[in-house]
Amino acid sequence: MNQxxxxxxxxxxxxxxxxxxxxxxxxxNFDQQFRSVFWTLKDTLVGAxxxxxxxxxxxSDRKQEE
Length: 66
Prior knowledge:
By secondary structure, the chain is mostly helical. The chain is built from three helices and no strands. It has helices spanning 3-22, 30-49, 55-65.
């Protein structure tokens, strides 16, 4: 795991914790919500760094993580 992914995991954790505090995330939907937050952050970060990156590369990376 690279350093950027570790930072993304920490950021995702903090966001999901806030959602738990607000009652928006429960144990039954934690997995889905955490993955959604993580991939939204990662897609945003990659899109900001490389605007002309091909979407197929993101999809292949996502499949490897799952």
